[in-house]
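Hi there, hope your week has been kind to you so far. Thanks so much in advance, here it is.
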Amino acid sequence: MQGTVRPDALNRPGPPRPCLNQRRSAIGNIEHRGGSPTASAIAEPRPASARPRLPRTYLIWLTSALASFMGNSVLYFALGWSATAYGGAVAGLVLTAINLPRAALLLVGGAVGDQLGARRVMISGDAVMFVASLLLAALAYRLGAEPWLLIATGVLIGIVDAFYLPASGSMPRRIVGKDGLPRALALRQIGTQVVTMGGGPLGGVLVALVSLAGVALVDAVTFALVLIVLIAIKPSQDVPASGSKQPVLRQIADGVRVGFGDAVLRPGLLLIGAAAGFLLPVMPLLLPLLARDQDWGAGATGLVVGAQGIGMVAITLGVLRRGPLGRPGLLAAFGLMTAGAGVLALALVPSSNAALAAGLVVGLGNGLFSSHISPLIMTVTPDSHLSRIQALLTLVQSLPLLLMNNVLGNLAGQAGVTVTVAVCAIAASITGLLALVSRPLRTTRVGLDPA
């Protein structure tokens, strides 16, 4: 469940503590007045070695979270593989059973996370999934991978994900705070990328060796690991649960109001939604169609996907080592335009060898975009709305992706895959250009080290 791209207005103003105020005046801290960020005086840059290390608590939590993410990746593969034995209709139902309740309940999950506290929600979710994984292992061993069991498991995963993902997405901010957030998210993105690349092959091996029942047991172990870590650690930057007595619907509406009312959050969320709709479907959906159309072969296609991953990791490693590479909103917009140029090159290149370079450009742009927009969203989110904005962030990625996978697939069949890839490229590039129209997004220095 931990994963993802999580998956974030500044804190309400209050009198600063004297020591913090002195530090702010010394380094030229960013202030937020009237709903838009402004930069004050800038001090001398700190050398890279002077940057504080990420807290050990964060590294321990991230390690356990990535282990659980790997367990989930393997389980999702096993569920999908088992479902295909009954035909495409059952396989589609299993995927829908996961995605539909997740999308329907995400905003509810975000509101509950802010009301009860993210850590409490995550402990509850891991405990539920630990028991559910053991039960799945027992039933699958006894009865086999029956369709009703696969669908019921998918529904449970989707419901738990809806509450777990917003809480998990807010954990880096709760553990690290704002100053180290870009580097913390960069490290999480690298780990997620590695797990994503390895989850499918490992799932295939485990399904062949131990079947669905054995995979469920492996997943139960990872849930137990995260559960122990969450009980043991105490996020140093965490904010107390709101304990609000407002109805859940009113809390959801308040989260949407904050997300789309803030001068930085609104264009940032729209930018992420556009990237999800026009950029994310390219590699898993359109590239295989393009490769078949151009007779590139499965091996060459896999290399293009790998080149994209290398480009993403290269940029993310730079952010991990040095921190943000510039104004985050500005670089996110340029990253989306760069990725769009790479996608356009994919549509126009004459050979699979040239497609490798195009895939690398897509990865560089995607890495530049994601490694700057995510910390920006999370940094400017009010402490009181961390889980709700993470839920909104996940939703604005999930809905366009669900829609555009079908739209682009049909368009490729009607107009041709080359035209469809070119449409995605142009749409992504135009979205990046439009993002530059937003002055708050373009000029904000929130999250930047003093330089």
Summary: The longest strand covers residues 30-33. Residues 181-232 form the longest helix (52 residues). Residues 1-50 have pLDDT under 50 and may be disordered.
